[in-house]
Amino acid sequence: MFVLNSKPLPLDTAFTHPDTGVQYPATWLRLTSLAEKEAIGITEVPDQPTPYYDQRFWWDTGIPKDHAQLVDQWVGQVKQTAASLLQGTDWLVIRSQDLSSQKPIPDWALDERGVIRAKSDEKEAAIRATTTTEELAAYVTSAAFSAWKDEPAPAPAADPVAEDTIVFSGGATTSAFSF
């Protein structure tokens, strides 16, 4: 950033020197050397970094949003996410209530729906347990808040000669390609 008489000079903006009254065009700061700028009293100072704040939780740096309103907002978000996740198996519940069909809900769907409801309850309780905006922000930005299903154990390493191997044989040459 360039400064003249303790006032910042924005790039690509024409300016008038306060002491001499000389007018400079908008491109002057970009096209002149540092020595030319210093000759008329312009100094270059490092830009001050803009402090980061998460606008979901803060109005400005150090100014938190109302905790109670944020709790209501994030609990609503959890409920909306849970409803969205349950939507994929809602048809099975509806089908089980249909008098013409009355097919039972499969166990896998009941288990999945139970996990989603349990995670939703867990997340809502954790949100409601926070007492400050800082605590709420820490929880909502954590991996625990993002996870809706228990992560499965990693799959065992694949056999290097898997069933997806094609062997070509012809004459004295044999080649194998794995996918």
Helices and strands in order:
Layout: E1 2-4, E2 7-9, E3 15-16, E4 23-24, H1 28-31, H2 34-39, E5 42-44, E6 58-60, E7 63-64, H3 67-97, H4 107-129, H5 133-140, H6 143-146, E8 165-170, E9 173-178
Antiparallel strand pairs: 1-2, 1-5, 3-4, 6-7, 8-9
Helix pairs in contact: 3-4
Strand order of the largest sheet: 2-1-5
Strand content: 15-25%
Number of helices: 6
Number of strands: 9
Strand and helix order: EEEEHHEEEHHHHEE
| Helix content range | 40-55%
Between the first and last Cα atoms, what is the distance in angstroms? Answer: 56 Å
Q: Specify the biggest β-sheet.
A: 3 strands, antiparallel
Number of separate domains = 2
Mean pLDDT metric = 86
Backbone structural class: alpha+beta
Low-confidence stretches are none
C-alpha Rg, in Å?
32 Å
Main attributes?
179 residues, alpha+beta, two-stranded antiparallel ribbon, 42% helix, 17% strand
Give a brief outline of the structure.
By secondary structure, the chain is α+β, with helices and mostly antiparallel strands. The chain is built from 6 helices and 9 strands. The protein folds into 2 domains: 43 residues, no CATH class; 89 residues, no CATH class.
